[in-house]
Design brief:
about 200 residues; alpha/beta; Maf protein; 7-stranded mixed β-sheet; 6 helices
């Protein structure tokens, strides 16, 4: 059985590889806009499911998709538009605790059945940020790292210097909750690396 990753995120591919899962990358093209009145948990579940459904798969393949959101109060902080937006987000996160939500969706086409076997997991982690000075914010924004990261920081990069603590899955904050993802893949029928073949 082959694993297909419906994401172009190198971090997710590397995280899967770190536990012995080699995935073929087939990025999904979906609309990731938040719908009016949509709760953050419903938003990430929907987008992960739509990403998985957007990727064609054959019997013998399992498609894995994920969507991560940084949530501060009522606001979902996506990827910043530019350096000014990154600095705005970092100021908002400074000295506060925010939530990182990741929905992971797996689907496996079943031969002779137009429906697919599928399952979703939702993982939440609370991240406590240090109080940041304006020079810290300006320095970090100038590194360019925040520009393609939800919430304008990467815990696995230089942004990790600003994280005081995490309650919950650290790999979730990176973008793929590993323990929950492996359990989900096992549920959908993908043999895990340590299982007999």
């Amino acid at each position: 059985m082959r694993l297909v990753l419906a994401s172009q995120s190198p971090r997710r591919r590397e995280m899967l590889a770190s536990v012995g899962l080699v995935a073929e990358v087939r990025p999904a093209r979906t609309d990731e806009s938040i719908r009016p009145g949509e709760r953050p948990s419903d938003y990430v579940r929907r987008v992960a499911r739509e990403k998985a459904e957007a990727v064609a798969a054959s019997p013998g393949e399992v498609v894995l998709a994920a969507d991560t959101a940084v949530v501060l109060g009522p606001e979902v902080l996506g990827k910043p538009r530019d350096g000014d937006d990154a600095r705005r987000m970092l100021r908002a996160l400074s000295g506060r605790t925010h939530v990182v939500l990741t929905a992971v969706h797996a689907r496996r086409p079943v031969q002779g059945d137009p429906a697919a076997a599928e399952a979703t997991a939702l993982v939440s982690s609370a991240v406590r940020f240090a109080t940041l000075s304006e020079p810290q914010i300006a320095w970090y924004a100038a590194t360019g790292e925040p520009l393609d990261k939800a919430g304008a920081y990467a815990i696995q990069g230089a942004g990790g210097a600003f994280v005081r603590g995490v309650a919950g899955s650290v790999s979730n904050v990176v973008g793929l909750p590993l323990a929950e993802t492996l359990a989900l893949l096992a549920t959908i029928g993908l043999p895990l690396p340590w299982e007999p073949r």
